[in-house]
Amino acid sequence: MKRKLLLLNVALALLLIYAGRQLRQTYQAAKAREAATLARQVRPAPPPPFTPLPPAPPVVAGGYSEIVQQMLFDRSRNPTVPVELPPPPPPKPVPPLPVYHGMMNLGDGPTVVLAVDAKSPHQGIHPGESIGDFKLVSVNTQEITFEWDGKTIRKRIEELEDHGAEQQHQQQAAAAPAPASAGTAQPAAPVAQTPKGPGIDIGAGMKACQPNDSNPAGAIVEGFRKMVFPTPFGQTCRWDPVN
Predict the structure, then answer these.
(1) In Å, what is the CA distance from 148 to each residue of 27, 92, 198?
(2) Would you give the distance in Å from CA 225 to the centre of its chain?
(3) Residue 185's pLDDT is what?
């Protein structure tokens, strides 16, 4: 038993000596590296290239113009005097529209019978033609489109009809004396038929027929031939040039 303890003590002593020797060698190597590092000389890095600053610009009076222009006696410090512009002119008023008197289509497109006003003569106008200050753009059975001053104006046909003549006719009918009694009412006098000849110009060299014209179909008056055509709404007529 003692022999085993002695051998164990000897082994521990040898291990302790070996560990101390290794520690001493490691310490000596570290000291040597430190000495070598401290003894080594490091070359200093070259300094960066020197770039001089740009010279300051000379002092000029124009650089202080903004300060000089400030108005010290105005809270806004604004040297610009406000200029009040005159108000824009009012828009140009639209002149009275032409008066509508009827429309027909004889196969060459619609022809609208218009007048500049209620007292002006009737004119047959086709789309693209002008009457007064207005240009006829398009027309149908419900509305008419005009062009005036670069603007498009659409109106219903009822708005362009001459209601003044209709009201005057109604007033005249109301002012006419009433018959003495219903039993003694007299028949209306027949309308006199007279050969009146061609009426107003409706375009394309043709002229309209006048009311109560007794000239028969095919009659030639003043170089025009009377033409009568049946339509779903009754007979219509016009005067065509003979040549």
Answers:
(1) 111, 11, 32
(2) 51
(3) 44
